[in-house]
C-alpha cells in the first residue's frame, strides 16, 4: 500500500484466524510446559488469597473494593485488574484447576500480543511474509 492511497481496510498484516490459532497454541504450550515442570497454581500466595477470603465472606463487598479504586496497593495502581481478580476469586474459589486455566489463558494472550507486535514490526521491512511469521 502506498502511503498516499486511502486505506480501504482490506490489506491486513495478520488474518483473524491466525490470531485465534496463535492464542490457542500459545495457551496450550504454556499449559504443557507448566505441567511438565510440575508448576502448581496456589492462589493463596499473593493477593488472591485475600481476595478469595473476602469474596466468600458475608460482609459488604463494596467496602473491600472501594480502597482498590482510590489508593495504590503494594506499589501498584492497577485497580481494574484487582477488581477483576476479586470477581474471579468469587467465581473460582480455591479450585486450583480454574486458577491454572486462567493463568495459561493470560499467558497465551500475552504471548499472542507479543507475537502480533513483532510480526507487525517485521512486516514493515522487506522480508517475505512467511519469514516475518517465523522470526516473530
Strand content: under 5%
Q: What is the general shape?
A: elongated
Number of domains: 2
Structural class from helices and strands? mainly alpha
Backbone CA Rg: 20 Å
Mean pLDDT: 74
Number of helices: 6
**Tally of extended strands?**
0
Low-confidence stretches: none
Percent helix: 55-70%
What is the H/E order?
A: HHHHHH
How would you characterize the largest beta sheet? none
Distance between the termini: 22 Å
Can you offer a commentary on this structure?
- This protein has 136 residues and is mainly α.
- The chain has two domains: 17-41 and 98-136, no CATH class; 44-93, no CATH class.
- Helices cover 66% and strands 0% of the residues.
- It contains six helices and no strands.
- Helix 3 (61-70) packs antiparallel against helix 4 (79-92) and helix 5 (96-123) packs across helix 6 (129-135).
- The model has no long low-confidence stretch (mean pLDDT 74).
How would the blueprint of this fold be written?
Layout: H1 16-37, H2 47-55, H3 61-70, H4 79-92, H5 96-123, H6 129-135
Helix pairs in contact: 1-5, 2-4, 3-4, 5-6
Summarize the structure.
This protein has helices at residues 16-37, 47-55, 61-70, 79-92, 96-123, 129-135. It is mainly alpha-helical and 136 residues long. The protein is elongated and about 60 Å long.
Features:
136 residues; transmembrane; mainly alpha; transmembrane helix; elongated; 6 helices; 2 domains
